[in-house]
Amino acid sequence: MARYITTTLPYVNADPHIGHAVELLQADASARASRARGEEVFFNTGTDEHGQKILRAAREAGREVQEYVDHYAARFGKLSDALGLSEHAFIRTTAAAHGGAAREMWRRCDASGDIYKKSYTGLYCIGCEAYKTEKDLVEGACPDHGGVVLEKITEENYFFRLSNYQDFLLNDYLVRPEAISPEWRRKEAIQFVQSGLEDISISREKARLSWGVSVPGDDTQVMYVWFEALTNYISTLGWPSDKDGKFKKFWEEGHTLQVAGKDQVRFQSILWQAMLTSAKIKNTDQVFYHGFITSEGKKMSKSLGNVISPYEMVEKYGTDATRYILLRHIHPSEDTDITWERMDEWYTANLVNGLGNLVARVMKLAEQHLSPPVGIADSAKDAKRKHTTIDTELEQLHFSNAMDSIFTKVSAADAQITETEPYKKIKSTDEKERESAREEIAELARSLAEISADLSWAMPSTSEKILRAVHENKKPENLFPRLEKYPTS
Questions:
Q1: Is residue 305 part of a domain?
Q2: Could you read off the pLDDT tens digit of each residue along the chain, which spans 489 residues?
Q3: 145 counts as catalytic
Q4: Residue of 118, 187, 302, 424 with catalytic role
Q5: 17 is catalytic
Q6: In 3D, which of 34, 35, 32, 45 has the Cα closest to residue 6?
Q7: Which of 226, 203, 51 is nearest to 118 (CA)?
Q8: Number of domains the chain contains
Q9: Who is most buried in 91, 106, 268, 378, counting CB within 10 A?
Q10: Identified catalytic residue from 17, 262, 282, 475
């Protein structure tokens, strides 16, 4: 089956943070696992570059807005490289093709009778780029941007008849268990829809906001950034022309997966699905929502000085070790609290003293005492071909559980060395004892080949290094150098 996997598109009003890295790696891990099963995958990510928040940030920085978004789009593009993402598309919503697709989405929703114009007064949160109703507020403030003063705005906008899709969402889309994971996020979406859907403003007056995609047939208005940006999920495939057939293959006939943060439920699983239905396009098969990352119980912020940069992580630990930390020690769907100290402990205990030490010990023994190298072609191939517990966990997007299963094998190999002591038996004067030691060393080398295959979706470079070492029957350079003192502020 063809598979389509996408992240959300982050706003380009600041440098990438660790939450962006987690989302990218979850999508990449899923893409790699699917490709390993022999499936054709279209993996998408990119940047969201329109909207009032970005225009304001550019003006505050004293820069032209296009120059501003170009700078930050490049920063996000470099993050993809720093994290070692597999083959993927990178879409920018300022691209002309995307703008054309967004206007076509508008025209199709309009043709369905779902767009109308009216005057509206409401409280606007610049942080969310959205109007807020009383039921959205906590003590009069946006729960996600408590420090942002809500603006009372009156203007004439176009609206999307989201209320038309309440019954569809409850009775057709959200009833499917696979539509949203984890399950409690699906229940959250259902409860929100059951509370009643209101039509949503999908345009802004160009006199107030010039940075956006113009509304078809009305040059005085630009599209609301969410209505426009969500269309990236199909514009990246060449929709609506689909001259290369990617939309048909990966969206219409394939399995579609969107990876998003837990604060995105209303946009990804409600508004976007209603838009698709209005435009007579297949709905997303599954949306997976991850949690947030905090540090010492507090939300990361520049003012608190507790922001952890993924670039700094890669500089300190390396790409594969960063992937390991974020895929194993960040819960896939719940909030996780981390600090530099904890990450140092995970790196040292599980990579330096764990996997790295195991590979060094086994391959030193193999290099000295095995000739020729163990036959691993079949075992490595079998490890990739057979359906394992790890495969099941990955299919369910339980990335940390899959990593735990792999490192259980690492611990088992360590325990085997401790129990059988091949490093002692190989020095025996008894030939049978030495032969038994060689067999044990060969078994351990084959275990490394299996661990290598298991790691290919999570730590691809490390996987290749381990497999090459076993093939060449040679101890590799240290996979994970010990940490030096490192500034974390």
A1: no
A2: 899 999 999 989 888 999 999 999 999 999 999 999 999 999 999 999 998 889 999 999 999 999 999 999 999 999 999 999 999 999 999 999 999 999 999 999 999 999 999 988 778 776 666 677 766 776 667 776 666 667 777 789 999 999 999 999 999 999 999 999 999 999 999 999 999 999 999 999 998 888 999 999 999 999 999 999 999 999 999 999 999 999 999 999 999 999 999 999 999 999 999 999 999 999 999 999 999 999 888 877 666 677 889 999 999 999 999 999 999 999 999 999 999 999 999 999 999 999 999 999 999 999 999 988 887 654 444 444 567 899 999 999 999 999 999 999 999 999 999 999 999 999 999 999 999 999 999 999 999 999 999 999 999 999 999 999 999 999 999 999 999 864 444
A3: yes
A4: 302
A5: yes
A6: 45
A7: 203
A8: 2
A9: 106
A10: 17
Phi, psi angle pair for 135, to nearest 5°: -70, -15
Q: Are residues 233 and 344 in the same domain?
A: no
Same domain, residue pair 53 and 191: yes
> Same structural domain for residues 262 and 352?
no
Q: Cis peptide before 460, with omega less than 30 degrees from 0?
A: no
Q: Are residues 143 and 259 in the same domain?
A: yes
- 3-state secondary structure at position 26: helix
Active-site entry in 20, 132, 290, 409: 20
Nearest to 223 by CA among 322, 109, 330: 109
SS3 for 226?
A: helix
Domain annotation covers residue 99:
yes
20 a catalytic residue: yes
Which tokens is 70 given? 């170009």
Do 368 and 277 lie in one domain? The reply is no
Contacts of 424 (CB under 8 A, 6+ apart): none
Domain of 457, CATH number, reads 1.10.730.10
> Per the residue annotation, which of 50, 98, 142, 398 is the catalytic one?
142
Catalytic residue among 78, 118, 187, 299: 299
142 is catalytic: yes
The pTM assigned to this predicted structure is 0.91
- Domain presence at residue 300: no
**How many residues are listed for the chain in this entry?**
489
Fill in the DSSP letter of residue 204: E
Residues 69 and 165 in one domain: yes
- What is the layout of strands, in order, in the sheet containing 89-92? 89-92, 41-47, 3-7, 255-261, 286-290, 180-181
CATH number at residue 169: 3.40.50.620
Catalytic residue, from 125, 255, 290, 316: name it: 125
**297 found inside a domain:** no
Are 268 and 344 in the same domain? no
Of the residues 50, 128, 246, 316, only one is catalytic, namely 128
Give the domain extent around 460. Answer: 339-472
Buried-exposed string 414-444: b where 16+ CB fall within 10 A, e elsewhere = bebbeebebbebbeeeeeeebebbbebbbeb
